[in-house]
TrEMBL record:
This is Reverse transcriptase Ty1/copia-type domain-containing protein. Residues 23-268 form the Reverse transcriptase Ty1/copia-type domain. InterPro entries: DNA/RNA_pol_sf, RVT_2. PANTHER family: AMIDOHYDROLASE 2 FAMILY PROTEIN (PTHR43383:SF2), NODULIN 6 (PTHR43383). The lineage of its organism: Eukaryota, Viridiplantae, Streptophyta, Embryophyta, Tracheophyta. Pfam families: RVT_2.
Length: 274
């Protein structure tokens, strides 16, 4: 690996492998007779903040499961995703009722999903276990790249959070709510991003502790940037705004228009649209 950030990428790979070891993602075994193993590859990505600046380097070890067969290598693949309209409605409630709004991130979320099928994978290139180079990885968890990975993570999270008293929304299955007397908390799941909306700080922290016990979590504090959307608030004025300025700037750079002259209105006054 030869680039300016090679050390950061290498550390990201080590961090990924540590997460896999902590989650007991695989065990090394001899490949059973008649079984076929899949390959694997590294996928690299930078995570940026609301201003488009690189926040951290991420490396994902992904299974090359292009040839997975339905009914043999996997059964079902569907997993719900929270709707953008749901997010907007919840943001409106946060502003109107001056609710607490916090964010958490699930580290290597998909690695928490239990794998029901037997899948074998090559050891990652450059990281072969000494003395066991001829063995393959028997996957125990639903690694990234498997067709069922997203679904298995959702099932794991759903079972965990509902065991703590949360009730799944009937319209948006990635929204959960827990009520205790006059206190309530809403949880929004978007793959590995979690938004927590509550009217009670103690209840909010209780849920954070529960999540941190069951998953490897990163507490982001008050929500400011989620799924590419910047959140800004003025609680004294009861205001909350959503912006995608960073994404807009990224698109302008991609099409080499970041130096273009801006206009207050998109079209000159008096211009015919016909």
């Amino acid at each position: 690996m030869k680039c300016d950030d090679s050390e950061k990428w290498f550390n990201a790979m080590i961090d990924e492998l540590k997460s896999m070891d902590d989650n007991k993602v695989w065990e090394l075994v001899e490949l059973p007779e008649g079984a076929k193993q899949v390959g694997c590859k590294w996928v690299f990505k930078t995570k940026r903040d609301s201003h488009g600046n690189i926040e951290r380097h991420k490396a994902r070890l992904v299974a090359k499961c292009y040839n997975q067969k339905d009914g043999i290598d996997y059964k079902e693949t569907f997993s719900p995703v929270s709707k953008k309209d749901s997010l907007r409605i919840i943001m409106a409630l946060v502003a109107h009722y001056n609710l607490e709004l916090h964010q958490m991130d699930v580290k290597t979320a998909f690695l928490n999903g239990d794998l029901e099928e037997e899948v074998y994978m090559d050891q990652p290139e450059g990281f072969l276990t000494t003395g066991k180079e001829n063995l393959v990885c028997k996957l125990k968890k639903s690694i990234y790249g498997l067709k069922q990975a997203s679904r298995q993570w959702y099932i794991k999270f759903n079972n965990t959070i509902t065991s703590y008293g949360f009730v799944e929304n009937t319209v948006d299955r990635c929204i959960y709510m827990k009520i205790s007397g006059s206190k309530f908390i809403i949880l929004v799941l978007y793959v590995d991003d979690i938004l927590l909306v509550a009217n009670d700080v103690a209840m909010l922290h209780d849920v954070k502790r529960f999540l941190s016990i069951n998953f490897e979590m990163k507490d982001m504090g008050e929500a400011s940037y989620v799924i590419g959307i910047e959140i800004f608030r003025d609680r004294s004025q009861g205001l909350l705004g959503l912006s995608q300025k960073g994404y807009i700037n990224k698109v302008l750079e991609r099409f080499q228009m970041d130096k273009c002259s801006h206009r207050i209105v998109p079209i000159q006054k008096g211009t015919s649209s016909v």
